[in-house]
Amino acid sequence: MTRTVVRQVGLWFPTLAYMLIIFTLSAQSNPLPQLTTRVWDKLLHVTEYAGLGLLWCRTCRGAGLSWPAAILLAVVSTAAFGASDEWHQSFVPGRTADIHDWFADLVGGTLGSGAYAAWTKFAVEPWPTAAAASPDRAGPGRT
Description:
Elements: H1 2-26, H2 33-36, H3 41-62, H4 67-89, H5 99-124, H6 130-133
Helix pairs in contact: 1-3, 1-4, 3-4, 3-5, 4-5
């Protein structure tokens, strides 16, 4: 039981903590002014939400979803959070809600979840050889 709880916390905590960081920064009128004056706003959104998409994909995959389902849910979850973040910013003095920012969030979430899938699938879980993939030689976890 304890292992399951620890695993679930380890699976969900990074994603939820990252979302809290985004929310906290969005609640400020001018967060990180040294950075935001030097870097294009849309690039910041893409980068920020690529991290969230990566974490969502990790969480979804760790929860047992298939790769296509994990990627789709990660992109949808990131896009939904981005939309709620833009709405939240409409109430913060000095901030506005912008559909272009949300689109950059969507692009970032897609890139992040795709990057996680590619890294995990190709670097961590390399494709099996033909001999290893045959049904009579399938090892643990291979079907």
